[in-house]
Design a protein that fits this description.
- This protein is mostly beta strands.
- It is 10% helix and 40% strand.
- The strands form three sheets. A six-stranded mixed sheet has the order 1-2-4-11-6-9, with no helix packed on it. The chain has a five-stranded mixed sheet with strand order 3-5-10-7-8. Strands 12-13-15-17-16 form a five-stranded mixed beta barrel.
- The longest helix has 14 residues.
């Protein structure tokens, strides 16, 4: 770690003319730092999601991620970082009061690792690698701010624990998830990276979805297809019947959350309707 903690107490802030920025995205160049490569620049982003691109990285940047005040979420706020495939030339840390905790090394960025941290832990600190030739070096990533009810909630793979959802969790997932769809598992493909499976689904009904992760399959009226991600060790298998799939969309990918058998869900939903305890209503026809 070439930039010492003492540097954090003497930040040199660069002028706004040296980069392009809006509330969601930032694009800058380390060439502005070349003559004083120990500079640390402050960047402020106030969106639920966006991107950063740092060309020819030198010195370091501190990235302050905060939601827009008009859409401030409830619960504990986390940031998830997804590096671009060609991201290199810098390492990512979480910084708080001069202490740096590693988040993503250059090698982990090249492998496409996604990492999350609580905004209560600190801010994002990006340190450029020391090298003679900074040409063709770009540190780039997408970020997404995610609100969870408890600090221990799994962020990037919602079903990492592989535990069944309670009845109340199923009903709330129907209301609050990024997607709620009905269908079958067609096949399961293990991904090369980490303990992750890609579940190919065929759907008869899309109740709600974000970012159009499921598309019309063209195989008949009302059929949709798509993929959902889940840990391989959860044991997803094809041919287990019809499910209600719910979950979260992370960087354009659907991640599986609660997924009860549809026949069990419809009994639960009808019981909640009869007792007036259903938290929301959807058209089940």
């Amino acid at each position: 770690m070439m930039i010492l903690v003492t540097l954090l107490s003497a930040l040199v802030l660069c002028g706004s003319a040296q980069y392009s920025s809006d509330q969601c995205n930032w694009r800058g160049s380390g060439l502005m730092h070349e003559s004083h490569a120990r500079d640390v620049e402050q960047v402020y982003l106030r969106c639920a999601e966006g991107s950063l691109e740092w060309l020819y990285p030198t010195g370091a940047i501190i990235i302050n991620l905060r939601p827009n005040l008009q859409s401030r979420p409830r619960g504990h706020l986390h940031a998830c970082i997804k590096p671009r495939g060609d991201s290199r030339g810098g390492s990512l840390y979480v910084e708080r009061a001069g202490d740096l905790r590693p988040l993503l090394s250059e090698a982990e960025q090249a492998a496409g690792r996604v990492r999350c941290f609580s905004l209560q832990e600190g801010v994002l600190f990006v340190e450029a690698s020391v090298q003679q030739d900074i040409s063709k070096r770009i540190t780039a990533f997408q970020y997404q701010l995610i609100s969870t009810e408890t600090p221990g909630d799994e962020l990037y793979s919602p079903t990492a624990a592989c535990r069944p959802c309670t009845d109340q969790e199923v009903l709330m997932a129907l209301c609050t998830s990024d997607f709620a769809v009905r269908g079958n598992i067609q096949s399961v493909e293990q991904e090369a990276d980490e303990d992750r499976a890609s579940v190919v689904v065929s759907l008869s009904h899309v109740y709600r979805q974000k970012s159009r992760v499921f598309v019309s399959g063209g195989g008949g009226r009302g059929r949709w297809t798509g993929r959902v991600k889940t840990p391989q060790h959860c044991g997803p298998r094809a041919g287990q019947g019809e499910f209600l799939f719910t979950g979260a969309v992370r960087f354009g990918e659907a991640w599986l959350g609660c997924a009860p058998h549809y026949k069990d869900f419809i009994k639960l939903y009808q019981s909640a309707l009869d007792s007036g305890t259903n938290p929301c209503h959807i058209d089940m026809d």
